[in-house]
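Notes to self, Fumarylacetoacetate (FAA) hydrolase:
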Amino acid sequence: MSEFVIAPPAIPAVPVAGGGLFPVRRIFCVGRNYAAHTREMGGDPNREPPFFFTKPADAIALGDSVPFPSATQNLHHEMELVVALGAGGRDIPSDAALAHIYGYAAGVDLTRRDLQDEAKSLRRPWDMSKGFDLSAPISLIVPAAQIGHPAAGRISLAVNGEQRQNGDLSDMIWPVADIISFLSSLVELKPGDLIYTGTPDGVGQIQPGDRVYGVIDGVGELEFTLA
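result:
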């Protein structure tokens, strides 16, 4: 007999290339990790310590259709490399960080930019601009055992066939190993954690009915329509 007073929620999971499911524990996101994007958002691209925000695990969005969210008139796309952790720890050294990675995926951080701008102006948290339902579309996770640890390669996104974002993973201010190391100094990382590692410049507005296509060379691609 279960001790839970209500039925426990399902475990969010992402399909893995080749079969199986990756259970998602938490979603961490890195803000302003590409210099050009930092500039377009009005920030200073100097290599300051990274900062993070989170999305709920069930913000993961899979499949060909993603619902357009409520309460926004300015939804933006942000194309990102996603890191899936197979091992956790505290205070992980950068030179040991890559060993903690299970695999990689292509993802999009959907952002209610109008709500984010309002929160910034009022010095309030970003939660409702970033962590809303199905705000984290993601591709299949590809094991690092198959593709290694990509440190360079094209990351791009197109809307209705028109290219919007086109960068390179090598343009990250903080590479993946440093992100893991710094984040593990703030929280104890766990297997099942996902890290969205930041977006190149070219973020912009998307509307209901738009077709979004993102690709990261050597990692994967995802495509969805805003329903």
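- The CA atoms of residues 95 and 196 lie 20 Å apart.
- The helical segments are 35-40, 94-97, 113-122, 127-130, 144-147, 176-183.
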